[in-house]
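User: I need a structural model of Multidrug export protein MepA from Treponema primitia for a docking pre-check later this week. Nothing fancy, just the predicted structure tokens so I can convert them on my end. Input:
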Amino acid sequence: MSDLANDNVPGNPSIQADAAERLGTDGVGKLLLRFSIPAITGMIVNALYNVVDRIFVGRWVNEMALGGLSLVMPLMTVSMAFAMLFGVGAANMISMRLGQGRKSEAENALNHCFWLLLISGIILMALQLIFLDPLLSILGAQQGSASLPYARSYYLIILYGQVFLSVGFGFSHCTRAQGFPAISMISMFIGAGINFILDPLLIFVFRWGVDGAAWATIIAQLAQAIWILAFSFSKKAVIRLRLRLLQRSSPRSFKPSPGIVTQIMAFGSAQFFLQFVMSAVQLIYNTSVGRYGVASLGVSNGGDIALSGMNINGSMAMLILMPVFGISQGAQPILGFNYGAKKFDRVFKAYRAAVVVATVICVLGFAMTELFPLQLVKLFAPIGSPALLRFTPWAMRVMMLLLPLNGFQIISANFFVVTGRPRTSIILSMLRQCLALIPCIFIFGRIWGLWGIVAAAPVADGVSFVATSIMILFEMKKLRAQMATS
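Assistant: Understood. Predicted structure tokens for Multidrug export protein MepA:
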């Protein structure tokens, strides 16, 4: 029987413990393969929630509807940021506590994670429902924009599934941190499969348009959340979810602790800020391309066309980089467990292997976008306007110029989280997506308009690569010193 099958034998404490202990004993290459393939699959499948919607909407509604989906992406990214703040934060804490043999503390982190995800999901849903129209105006939706009605209609429905997204996506990280990557992968398959089936049914058969795409997404997220919670309550899990509050006489009750909340948020802060900054960048992109699109493309609806084109390129970047984030997430339990167990030689091996695999993925993505940009654009807009089909392939080639460097940067940022330096990880995460990119967008946009905005991405990639290389060299030197004295 395979390792994954053995992991899921119910009620067997020795097998449950072994699922975590193998993180410190099995070959690093074998572990990275075992954890990364499900993580990569899960990240790609999770990306398909949005990308599948865009493909169906772009091909069979219209390109203005595709621009509407682009308008609300910053809000969706903020929602994802909070899910990652608590989900990734708890997962990092769980893997380290299991590596240190402190199982009860790991279980306490899991239970805190559930309540944090649930409460934050409800609050986010309520706030966005109340302030949806002002938020859309801030996001760059101009009065009279052809994309605005599509954006409002789509996101109003998406908000009703906010809690499902928070719990389902956030808890999948905690499941993987326990040594059960297959459970997390299956949850993603369930969600994406349902979304893929319902999208054409609701868009075409019921003729709901973008509303159908939104309903398909939240139904899929509900199914994913149910699956992952069912496992977390079961005896198959190494640590279990318990909802009994404040029963201090019971060792199995959950006792809220501000200290644990603070630790979870510290461990998840890097991913949170990365997602939050991505939202800010999406907002700046939306407002900037809307401002310069008409003049640069020479058509009256140039702003909406530029929005649609950047949406397509963002979708391609997401699909290419999701496997890299999957490698990063797959390496996290290995790095965290072995760092907690002070097995620094295994930490080095896992990091190097993750960087190599991530770089190979980025090189392949670079080749694809440079050689076949028009064909990739036509996946989303087979009968798009001439202006869209001129602008988008060119922009794709320029924006992906330094894509091969991104794998190293993403893996290295996560490495600092695992080694207990979330502040450094935050700096690296923000550098490419904020500190370097945003000034380039503003400066290049004023000088060269829409073409300058497109060129900002590779410049930011280069700056980030240089800074990350310097910081990782210093960190490796410190770890080698610890290794020599341990």
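Before docking, keep this in mind: Residues 258-297 form the longest helix (40 residues).
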